[in-house]
Amino acid sequence: MWTIAGTLTPVPALDRLDLVAGPVAAALRSMADGARFAVAEIDPTLADTAEFCAHYGSPLEASANCVVVAGKRGDTVRYAACLVLATTRADVNGVVRRRLDARKASFAPMDDAVSLSGMEYGGITPVGLPADWPVLLSPEVAAAPELVIGSGIRGSKLLVPGEVLAKLPGAEVVDGLAR
After folding, report:
1. If DSSP codes are grouped into helix, strand and coil, which group holds residue 67?
2. Residue 167, domain CATH
3. In the chain, N or C: fewer CB atoms in 10 Å?
């Protein structure tokens, strides 16, 4: 079923919630589309996208990276998750900054991203993030028939159709998000 799996052995994510972070497991259990996610265990030292794709034979163009962005205006900080294909980068200083109505936007500090998401650095995923965070998706991600994304931990990956990600709470498909 998963043509992008390479040498991975995906199983229904709901059958192996031990392979995802706590907030991800809670979100998957509560989602109508939770059964459309698969999970595959990986070597956590190979979680970074380029190494993961090279080792497991999963195409780079079928991987999506999730970055946490902090936008500041005065003393107010707003967070968002941005999901773009691994072959592109999120337009943090343009599109994301404007969407967050911020004077300045940048990648959130690692400690903030980890503590606020409840996920491991290098495994953060748009599934199970705080409810008040917008989840910004590039149109290419939303349209992808299947993607590999983080699972909230470095020891596994989720496989999911892009259309399911576009239905996540707070999800918005944003033109021009990816460069």
Report:
1. strand
2. 3.90.960.10
3. N
